[in-house]
Design a protein that fits this description.
OB fold (Dihydrolipoamide Acetyltransferase, E2P), five-stranded mixed beta barrel, elongated
Length: about 90
């Protein structure tokens, strides 16, 4: 899973019928300090996330299809959790 931040939404009036009922988000990977670390990705939202939310993203086609419970969905990336908080304990602290 990839720790990411929602940075935008996509509005699409014409898309695959399999995606008809799904919200599309633009997410960007972040590090544990919240700094952006990678390129933007388009993801299907399964948890009602919004712009500014920190989320966990699954980026793997078969896993995404399992979460959506459909094999006919052309998807690779899915938002699977909204992160409410993080606690990191470093060794020796």
């Amino acid at each position: 899973m990839i720790l990411s931040k929602v940075i935008g939404t996509i509005v699409s009036t014409q898309k695959s019928p399999a995606l008809k009922d799904h919200k599309l988000l633009i997410v960007q990977p972040i590090d544990l300090n919240g700094a952006f670390t990678g390129r933007e990705m388009l993801a299907i939202d399964r948890v009602d996330a919004g712009v500014g939310d920190v989320v966990l993203v699954l980026q793997e086609g078969a896993g995404a299809q399992q979460i959506l419970q459909r094999k006919d969905v052309p998807v690779h990336t899915v938002v699977v959790a909204v992160v409410d908080g993080m606690h990191l304990e470093m060794p020796g602290e």
